[in-house]
Amino acid sequence: MEAHVTSNHCPWNKGKLVGQKAPLKAKEIWAIRTHLQMSKRVRDLALFNLGFDSKLRGCDLVGLRVRDVCHGDRVSSRAMVTQSKTQRPVQFEITQTTRESVEAWIQRRHLRSEDFLFPSRVTGAAHLGTRQYARILHGWVEDIGLDTVEYGTHSMRRSKASLIYKKTKNLRAVQILLGHGKLESTVRYLGIEVDDALEIAEQIDV
């Protein structure tokens, strides 16, 4: 007769919040931006603003070179990059606020066209890594009193896309901006079916 063996294996997700990370709300975006401006954190402000505008995955954001967003010595109002995950090109807008912060960072570091936009401070690394980016982001959300467990680098990718959808309800536009191949992917990514259903339910007061 075999002896019963009790497994001590603990599920990887025990006690952890899993699923999609929350997008930042408009007031939270302004809170982080203002905090970074007041703290004179030039690199972080450029990284935050460009991450919000570009809606890029973390790996694509940290891998940007100066030439990807600049035309001559000025930051362009639009840019196009090829996504490393899908190899699909995606365009994004760069607002005036973001252009100013990115130009200030480029000037501060005297970056050249071929340089990575966000060089790493770690010896042997060419540019900021995705884990470093995640730690920096957690610092931002913690600074304004948010729970870091609920936010990650995809929060930045989802934030502006979510705001655009809530304002316009134009799912196709959001699909294009995120570079998704299928509309269903955008629906799942934004979780909009759930959000819309809850919004409708909240309007029913008996």
From TrEMBL:
Segments forming a coiled coil: none
Domain Tyr recombinase, residue spans: 19-205
Entries under SUPFAM superfamilies matching the protein: DNA breaking-rejoining enzymes (SSF56349)
A Pfam entry, by short name: Phage_integrase
Alphabetically ordered keywords of this record: DNA integration, DNA recombination
Name under which the protein is recorded: Tyrosine-type recombinase/integrase
